[in-house]
Amino acid sequence: MRPSHNTPNPMPKWNLSIPADTDRLVRSHLARQGMKKGDLSALVNAAVREKVIRKMAERLRSENPRASAKKLEQLLESAVRREIFGELVREIQERNKDSDPDEIMREVDEAVAWVRAHR
Hints:
Strand content: under 5%
Number of helices: 4
Shape: extended
């Protein structure tokens, strides 16, 4: 069983303001596809991830102009993992700013051991 830690909400809620014509376009598109509950969230998630990853890829291409496509893909995968990991670390630091550092280290060691055991 996975260690019980205070984990961030796996599905954060966003409040977004978008132009009315974009709202009509998206809802019309989803309605034509037989919109189901969660389709709007899935569409926004896919679009945002794609945009962020595309921007990261552009930056990596400009920083590594001689890299092969395979190398750029590896760099991108690594950059995405680092970005996600960095955000998780910041969330954990904020949540535990008043906690005992030794207790946090024990929890981190326990979590790392669990991840390694379940690869």
